[in-house]
Amino acid sequence: MNELSEINLMWFIAFLVLILIGNYILSKAAEYIGKRSSGGKRRAAATVRSVLNWLSFYGALLLFLLYFWGEEWMTYTLYSQGGVDVSFFLILVAFMIVSLAHRLVKIFTLYVLKPAYEYYGIDTGLGYTFNRIIYYTVMILALVISLTTVGLDLTAIAAVLGVLGIGIGFGMRNIAGNFISGVIILFERPIEVGEVIQINGKNGRVEKIRLRSTIIRTAKEGTLIVPNQYFIEQIVRNRSNVAMSAEVTVSVSYGADTKRVEGLLEKAVKKVREDAEGILDNPPPDIRLVDFKNQALEFLVIIPVTNFQIKEKVESDLRHAIAKIFLENEIELAPLVYAGLRDTEE
């Protein structure tokens, strides 16, 4: 490395350290302000931290180009392809094109499209679909431009991918099916971000719809990553516009006084309503004798609640209350009867 390179390197390191220190100080200040604020100011502080990281990253890249632009190793030809002499500088430019496109489309959808959706009354699901389409379109274009910049022949790549696609198509048919299903979901919108759906008896809120899978947030099981093909092939209940309720089924021994059991269940519901939050006053709770089973009387208790997070908490509290009040009043639960064992004994 010649003397000029050593001087440039020293200045580059010095300014890079200043950028990192400045980013650290300003980020900590924004974080401190965000913790002491609420609402819009907290979101603004988070946005400032993100912008600072973005500016620091590209500031460091531009600083690098500024100090080493004239260096021979920056423009040294690594290989030639399609009449293009590919150097480290071109590779760095290709990387910046892709990363800058990613950042710009995120900023555009967040600060331009989101207010526009709110102003024109576009629902969340449709807005999310538009955002995904714009993002994938911009990123594909950026990737094509970056690959062309470094001299790669896209027609040759397409031909190779076509040949490989025939060979691995059968092995990746599930991935391809999920991809196509993701496109169908984005356009037809059978489910949308923010909706509450039921999968295998579990209620969850749709957080993100990706091309291969959908993210579902549940109150108990955490995050579920569901392949998109499931939503096309299976029956999925959309519970967004359905009144949410906590439901508990309890079976008592045959021969118990049904009216007395119903009265005890009413007391348990009253206890839960006094202690729990998120229970609706209208419609009122419902208690029914729903079925006669072998050696059992089956009751169903329904309590309307505000959302699915409250639902499981209320169901748990109701089971505790029923167990306690049944124990105090010597009400026996129905025994479990296994058909296979019964048939064997007969």
Short structural summary:
With 346 residues, the protein is an alpha+beta fold. It contains 10 helices and 10 strands.
Structural overview:
This protein has 346 residues and is α+β, with helices and mostly antiparallel strands. Helices cover 59% and strands 17% of the residues. It has helices at 3-36, 40-68, 88-120, 124-149, 154-168, 173-188, 228-233, 258-275, 308-328, 339-345, and strands at 77-81, 84-87, 196-199, 202-209, 213-218, 223-227, 237-238, 245-253, 286-293, 296-304. The strands form 3 sheets. It has a 5-stranded antiparallel beta sheet. Helix 1 (3-36) runs antiparallel to helix 2, helix 3 runs antiparallel to helix 4 and helix 8 packs across helix 9. It is elongated, with a radius of gyration of 31 Å. The relative contact order is 0.06.
Q: Which features would summarize this protein structure in a list?
A:
single chain, alpha+beta, 17% strand, elongated, five-stranded antiparallel beta sheet, three-stranded antiparallel beta sheet, 59% helix, 10 helices, Alpha-Beta Plaits, SH3 type barrels, 346 residues
